[in-house]
Amino acid sequence: MNTEREIELFVPGRLCLFGEHSDWAGTNKTMNADIVPGCAIVTGIEQGIYGKASASEKFTVESTLPEYQGEFFECEMDMTKLKNAARGGGFFSYVAGVASYMCEWYHVGGIRLCITKMDLPMKSGLSSSAAICVMVARAFNIIYDLHLNTMGVMNIAYWGEQRTPSRCGRLDQACAFGVNPVSMVFDGNEIDVDRITVKYPLYYVFADLMAGKDTVKILADLNRAYPFAHNEKETALHEALGEDNAKITDLAKKYISEGNSEKLGELMISAQKLFDEKVAPMCPEELTSPVLHETLNDEKIKSLTYGGKGVGSQGDGTVQFLAKDEETQKQLVDYLENVKGMRTFALTLKPKKAIRKAIIPVAGFGTRLYPETRGVKKEFCPVVDYDGLLKPGILVLLEELEKAEIEQICLILNREEQAYYEDFFFKPISQEHYNKLNDSMKRYEKKIGKIASKLTFVYQDEQKGFGHAVYQAKEFAAGESVLLLLGDTIYSSNSNIPCTVQLIDAYEKYGQSMIAVSNVPLDKVGNFGIFSGVWEDKEETILKLTRIEEKPSSTLAKEYLSVASRKNPENYFGAFGAYVITNEVFDRLDEAIEKNLTNAKGEIELTDALAYVSKNSGMYACLIDGTSYDLGNPESYRAAVASFGKKD
Question: pTM of whole model > 0.85?
Answer without folding.
Answer: no
